[in-house]
Amino acid sequence: MGVTPEQLKPESRTLTGYDGVTKLSMGDVKLHVRAGGLSRKTKFAVIDAPPVYNAILGVPWIYAMQAVPSTYHLCLKFPTTTGICTLYGDQRVPRTCSVIEKKQRKTEDV
Q1: In which element (H, E) is residue 25 found?
Q2: Count of structural domains within the chain
Q3: What backbone torsions phi and psi does residue 6 show, to the nearest 5 degrees?
Q4: Which domain holds residue 96?
Q5: 108 three-state secondary structure
Q6: What is the pLDDT of residues 43-95, one digit of tens each?
Q7: What sign has the CA pseudo-torsion 85, 88, 93, 94?
Q8: What residue spans of 23-91 are helical by DSSP H?
Q9: How far apart are alpha carbons 29 and 55 in whole angstroms?
């Protein structure tokens, strides 16, 4: 994502991955996240691990965007200056990430 070690604010915390493995974060970085024409500065915890996801946006970002998520409809709606923006998820992406994660676990176990 183009983040250098110098940009990290040193702060270590224990994070648990979807596979149940815990890792210590390397630090935090604040990046601008752009969605639906809006940009919000968002804090991310950075870990040293093979990327399954580029980033995971959590409750603070959803709150800052005044967004309403619907896991059933696989979408997220939030207000913009021109109306309501709807971002749709894609089931193929999580499936692909799951397959990649399983392959990575198999190679680590060997």
Answers
A1: none
A2: 1
A3: -70, -25
A4: 5-109
A5: helix
A6: 998 888 776 677 888 898 999 999 999 988 889 999 999 999 999 887 777 77
A7: positive
A8: 59-64
A9: 12
